[in-house]
Amino acid sequence: MRRKLRRLFLWCVTMLGLTGVIVLTTSKGNHHDRRGGTNTNGHLLRQRDSINHNVGQASHVLDKSKPFVAPVEFPAVVIEKTSSHFRTKHLQNNRIESPDLDATDQSNQQDHLPIGLPQSLPKTNMRKLGQVRNISKFEENQKRYSSQRRRKIDSNQVDLETSTNSNISQKLQTKGHDSVAHPSGKTNISTGQSSNQTVHRKQLPLKLEDIFIGVKTTTRYHQSRLNVLYKTWFQQAKRETYFFTDGEDPEWQNKTGNHMVNTGCQPDHHRQSLCCKFAAMFVKYMESRKRWFCQLDDDNYLNLPNLLRLLDTYPSEKDLYLGRSSLNHPIETMDRENDMKTVRFWFATGGAGFCLSKALAYKMLPYAGGGMFQSMCNRIRLPDDVTVGFIVEKLLDTKLTSIRRFNSHLQSLKVFRQNDLKEQITLSYGINSQRDNVVTVPDAIFSKKDDPTRLLSLHCYLFPYARICRRR
Q: Which stretch is the leader sequence (predicted)?
C-alpha cells in the first residue's frame, strides 16, 4: 500500500512539473534571448529539449523495470498575426523557413503568438491556415495577371513604334523628299536615307540655333564674296555663322559681330591651307556642342529654311554624313600609312557644302581634333573635303548620304527652272572671262552689272520682303 501511494505521489509531482514548464514556455515565448541572440523560436526549441530531458529522468524514478515511451516531438508552429492575415512558420533546425517573409513581417516578429507543441492544431487555427492558402493563391493570380498585362503593354508599344516609323516613311514619300541615296546607287526610298541608316522620331524639334555654320574664306575675298553673303542669307543666321579666314580684318570683325576667326593659316588655296582652316573650324564646332555641323565655301548661297527642314528629318544622334559628290565614281588614292595601298571612297565636295551630325563629329575627334586633321590630309595628300570623306567612309565605316539639293559651281547652274530654285539648299556661281556659270532668276530686280553672281536677285526672289529688296 505504501509503495502504491509513493508511486502515485511521484506521478503527481512529475505532472505538476510538466505543467509548470509548459506555462513558463507560453508566458516567456515572446521575449528575446539576450545571451544567444536568438529569437522566440529558438527559445521554444530549448524549452522543448528540457521538457524531453525532464520526462526521461522522471521515467526512471517511476519505474525502471518498464520502458518509458517519450511523447512524439512535433515542430513548433507559430501563427504570425498581421493586420491583414495570418501566416505559418515551421521551426526546423533552429531556424524559420518562411520564403515569403518580407521586411515588414520581420519587423513585426514581436507579435508572434506561440501555441506550444500540440500534436494537431485546433479547428480555428486550421481555418486560419485555409485563409492563408487562399490569400497565397490570390497573390499568385494577381502576380500572373500583372505579368500578362505588362507583356500586353510592351507589345502595344512595339506596335505603336512600328506604325509611327511607317507613317514617317509614307510622309517622306508623299512629300517628294530628296532621293537621298549613296552615290553607288544603293537607295532606300522608304526611309529617305542610305541603306545603313534608319529614321527615328526625334524628341525635340530642330531649331536654327542647333546648327553650326562654318564658312571658309580668305582676306582677298572679304569685299567681293563676303559682301554678297552678308547682304543675303547671313542676316538670317548671324549668331550661327562663323567665317574662318587667314588674316585680321577689324571692319568685318565688327560687321559680323566678332564672328571672324583668324586661323593664322596661309592665304592661298593649297591643300595645307584648306586643311588648316577646316581643323580650326572643327575645333570651334566642338566647343559649341550643337547638334549639326555644316561647312560652306564663301561662294555658296544657303537657303536656311530648306536646310532646317532637311536636317529636321534626320536624328543628330546617329552617324550621318550629308552632302553631294562632285564625281560620278569613288575617288582613288594611296594610304601612306597602310603600305601605300589604294583606297576608294566617296566624299561630299566642300564647294557645295556638307553637314555632319553631332554623333559622327564626336567619333571624328581622334582623327580631326587636336591637330590630327592636318596629318590625315598628309596621309592621303588631298584637300580637306576629300580627307573628311576618307575619315568618315574608310576609318569610321559610315556611308555618304547623297543630297541632290546641294550644288556647287562645278555643276551647270543655268539648267534650274523657276520652281527648282525654291527647293535647293545651296547654290553657287562661277564667273570667268569666257562663260559665266550662274543661275537664271525670273524677274530679277538687279542688273547683271550690279549683281554679277545673281545671288542678290535670287535672295529677293525667295524672300521678297528682305531689306535689300525693298529699296528696289
A: none
Give CA 376 to chain center in angstroms.
Answer: 31
- 63-86: burial string, b at 16+ Cβ within 10 Å, e else: eeeeeeeeeeeebbbbbbeeeeeb
Taking the model in full, what pTM does it have? 0.60
- Amino acid identity for residue 427 in this structure: L
In whole angstroms, give the CA distance from residue 321 to residue 328.
18
How far is residue 166's CA from residue 211's CA, in Å, rounded to a whole number? 27
Laid out side by side, the sheet with 86-92 consists of 95-97, 86-92, 77-81, 112-114
Q: Determine the Cα–Cα distance for residues 78 and 42; give it in Å rounded to an integer.
A: 12
Residue 437 phi, psi (nearest 5): -105, 90
130-186 pLDDT, tens per residue?
A: 544 555 565 666 666 666 655 554 544 434 344 434 443 343 333 434 444 455 544
Catalytic residue numbers read: 385
| Helix 271-288 × helix 372-380 angle, to 10° | 140
C-alpha 47/C-alpha 24 separation (Å) is 9
- Asked if residue 278 lies in contact with residue 384, where contact means CB atoms within 8 angstroms, the answer is yes
Q: How many CB atoms lie within 10 A of CB 39?
A: 20
Write out the DSSP string of 381-398: T--HHHHHHIIIIIIS--
Residue 385's closest CA among 371, 362, 368? 368
CB burial class (10 A; 0-12, 13-18, 19+) of residue 110?
A: exposed
Cβ of 281: how many Cβ atoms within 10 Å? 24
Q: Model confidence over 17-41: pLDDT tens digits?
A: 766 655 555 555 444 444 444 444 4
Instruction: Classify residue 144 by burial, with Cβ atoms within 10 Å: 0-12, 13-18, 19+.
Output: exposed
